[in-house]
Write a structure and sequence with these properties.
The complex is a heterotetramer of chains A (about 80), B (about 575), C (about 110) and D (about 250). Chain A has about 80 residues and is mostly helical. Helix content of chain A is about 85%, strand content about 0%. Chain A is flat, with a radius of gyration of 13 Å. The chains are: A mainly alpha (about 80), B mainly alpha (about 575), C mainly alpha (about 110), D mainly alpha (about 250).
Amino acid sequence: MTEMLLVLIIVLAVFSLISRDLIHSVIALSAISLLSALIFTLHWAFDVAITEAAVGAGVTTIIFVWALKHTSRKDI
Amino acid sequence: MNLESIAFIFLMAPLLASGFLLLAKTVHHHERLSFVIYYLSTISGFLISLFFTILVLTKVNQRGPVSFYIGAHHSEVAISYTFSLDGLIIFFVALFISFTSWAYNDRKKTKQIEFSIILMIQLFSIGATLFTRDLFNLFVALEIMGITSYVLIAFSSKVRSSVASLYYLLSSSAAMIFFLLGTYLIYRLTGSLNYHQIRETLKGTAMSPATVFAASSIIVAILMRSALFPLHFWLPNAHAMAMHPVSAILSGILIKIPLIALTPFVQLFDFSQSIGTVIKILGALSAFFAVIFAFCQSDIKKLLAYHSISQMGYITAAWGYAMELSLATEAGRILYTASILHIIFHALFKSTLFLSCGTIIDVTAQRNVYKNRNAARILISADRKHLLTIIAFFLSALSITAIPFFNGYYSKNLITSSFHHQWIYTILFITGVFTTASFLKLSAIFFRPGPVENTQTIRKEKVPVLSYVLLIAALTVTAVYHSPIITGLLSSVFSSQSDIHLEFYESEIWMKSVTTIIIGTILYISIRSRTISHLMHLTETVEVNLQSMLISVILSVTGLGIYLLVRGVILI
Amino acid sequence: MIRYILLGILFIIGMYALIFHRSVIKKVIALGIVNTSVVLLFIISGSSIGDAPAFTGEQGARMVDPMVQALMLTAIVIGVCITSFSLALIVHLWGRFETFDIDTIEKRGDDES
Amino acid sequence: MKMKTAAVHVIVIFALVLLAGCLFIPDDTPWPTDVRTRLVSDGEKDTGAKNLVSAIYLAYRAFDTLGETIVLIVAIIGTMSVVESVKKISDDPTTAVTYDFSLVKEKRSSHKLRTHLLEVVTGKIGPVVLLFGFYVMGQGHISPGGGFQGGTIIASGIMLFILGNPYSKVTEMRQNKILSTIEASAFVLFILVSLLSILTSGIFFSNPLEAAGVKYEYYIIALNALIGLKVGSGISLMCIAMMSRRRT
């Protein structure tokens, strides 16, 4: 199970790094956060999972979206 | 009241002050109230911290270093701290430099409260980095130190300072990832984060790739902050583009703290002597290369920033040699003391240089060394008190070029004389020549005749009398009382009465200084020749991009690890 | 074993992008990915000694290592703080250069002075 | 030139693979269990927390937690000061001004329906999220969660309130400084509590009122509450500062 999720994370990471549309990248990044929160729960790390979900998927995404809103969605 | 209980107050006082400053920020519409809280909390933060530092310093001087755990019930899971004398002395200097820079910034009224909050937090992080004996706590302390410096650099809200801050942030975050990985490996191998227990577990174990790479990734991450040779690329822009008091703090004290924090860490490993050798060589190389780059700069603050790397090279060379000889030996202790001495002296003269050159740049509105002319007359015509600026500049310039009777002379000669009959001695000699030449070049802004008529560019600046007076006094005192300071340091840091060779005015050392000055002057005159100035311009325009900064981190970790492994195999 | 190799791959991808990607915002994303890979490494290794959550009770001897979890809480938060400040800087730079391209920022930043 | 860049890529990838191999792939030494053994026997006795992660996070290694909140403070101050300076650049009256995120004031008529929906939904969800945040904050010692997580959830609750409210409310919140006062005083209290323990028990960062019979878990709850308030108000402040920026 962990391996499968990790493969998924790697795929998402590659996608978020090569995507031209930055909003897609950011959504992939927050999906990575959510999947890693899932891995944390599988490994009995509930505190870390809550933090990752709240901070990694929540606050980071808000800040990224804010930054894109004031710059541009298109990469380079 | 035992020592452990009161010891923490000197660390927490700046932090508490920053908390009250946050409160002052929230009431900034009541101008008077906010004003009162601002001055009260900042000054009392400095004073309380100073008082308790001196108190702890005297007690530790009598009893030796104090170690204890903080957290619940003194358990090994908790974080361990050790108050040692070298750290306390450096913290004292950090307090002094921070205060003078605060006083310098305070007259300008730009972002006062934010600046003070971050300054206070940075002071706390300096203390935490110096005294912690716990690997993860060191990580947190370094991150606080890092983020405070990124924010301080970006404060000047010029675009180039934001770029410099972003570069510093990205490259040092990449290095901190390796720090975290090193922490992981060490925890995995020893089951502890506490230096004492790590040492107990690692003692005598065979050298494995895991240990070596753990050590190399942590060492590189720490040395990155100290701007050692292949890891220094972030520094020139970051220090040159920041506001002047920020440059003074960053160059004056902040880049030295990680080196002192590295001392107990390196000693955890059985192969600490091989690490010392590498750092010694890199230190000498960074002294040499940075001074050449410094000599070629035309931007005043960039020139000073490259000199910081060069002087850090002296310090790390001495430090690495001390680790190579190990602190158990007499020569090792003397070298370690020499590096601490140069840290203190360099902190004083480099921050003075940055502050006075900052004033000159502000008043004359000219950052270029060649275009800045007749600075002395412009300064005096702007305000008579600027005489202090000029005195401060020349005192510190004479100190950094190691002219006899100034403080740099003693610490530099203490370092160089230890390298006698080694190739590093020659390298440091050439570095000294270039230092002399580039400070001649910098001092020329006062004498070079030029137009004084265009008075409209002269900006009236309030003279930061308090900071100049304090710094000039400190420079004078350290120059006059050099030998009591050195022997005092040596005997107190290692609680042993060593017979240190204190004859600084032997004919040999005299001769060396005189030759350095003569060759330096010749070198300075030679920049008028067309070929040399063309070469200098070529060197100046070499800009390092972010990619090479990041690559240098990765390759340094790998290189240091492979070197240590190979050397370990050879030694067996 | 496979999971460690996968984590290593994630780390290499992130670091590679951090170094070679030309867009600053992608660099920040890459930094986040590398950070995640390290956090995952800590947690996955820390759970190799047990199969119960870190609470006191009967299962005490079987629980995972609580230490790494407490450390990672701190590491995650620090990573987010770094990300937020770097994004603020990027927005500031956009206001001047209108590009994410690091080469352009470098070149035009030098021209200014 | 092309050859050179290719060589750089190859060298870096080689170094990265080597590093990942040495740093990520574990050898056969088992994971250490000393800390676990010690915590299982003493953890609850020392700290009164059933959740041993909280016991480490807020009692044994509370100093790290203090450092973490400090990093957050500095990041917020830095981000806000940069955001303010960005705002100054774009404060040009000639450009069309619309407000980000706060959908009510936007002059696009097609969004009217959505705005209304948002207002109603966030009005209902907001309080629930806030309550949940306080729950997570207060139960940190016996269940997963704690000050930081609770604080973040509270911040998202406040965000929900703001999303549904018109722009004027947002400016009002910025003006009356409730949030920043909470942030600053929670931080000051956090430091004062830790300093108090030096005066009473002589140990930095331990229960200051142990002699007076206050259980250790109450101390942990108090720390959780202070951290939660600090983090929650700090993050909401940062988000409000970002949202109320004018868009050019």
